[in-house]
Amino acid sequence: MPSSPLRVAVVCMSNVNRSMEAHRVLRKNGFHVRSFGAGSHVRLPGGPRKPPVLYDFSTPYKKMHSDLSSKDQKHYQRNGVLCILRRNERIKPGPERFQECPDPFDVIFTCGQRAYNRVVADLCARDQETWQPVLVVNVDIDDTLEAASLGASIICELCQGLQQADDMQSRLTELLQAAKEKTGRSFLHTVCFY
Q1: 147-151 — which CB contacts under 8 Å span 24+ positions?
Q2: What is the pTM of this model?
Q3: Which residue ranges of the chain lie beneath pLDDT 50?
């Protein structure tokens, strides 16, 4: 069993829906977790027939909520974005970008292949100082409220299995096989180093 609590990161592209729902569920279950986006900007759906709304990662969730409410409150209330931003405000002040975080993790879950590719590329480009392994696992999650909730449950189950493992890399293979049998999904995964 790991001598200290499992350090978990969850990464989607914008750190708004999928990673934040997993952050909420993991924190509720006692895990030391941080969440991130891997994109260049926070990207939220635009109004009807409008392009996406982009924010810098330095923009607090409260500011996004206020901005979208003033643009088209009914639309953003109906599509759930305002509710998501309110949930996020209760978890942390604003989105964070994975590429700007120097902290090490034991396992990083990504919520889509684009995020997975960016996280792995970023970890491979960093100077390996300690050669501490980090497991990177992709759980493909559609960017909807329902899919985010289901994906967060899958990530939590995987974390619970890893928390009890003496050898996390070997245990991960078993856990992913069981998750594949249960969900019908395949999971990309690799080991990188810090």
Answers
A1: 147/18, 148/17, 148/18, 148/21, 148/22, 148/111, 149/21, 151/18, 151/21, 151/22, 151/111
A2: 0.96
A3: 1-2
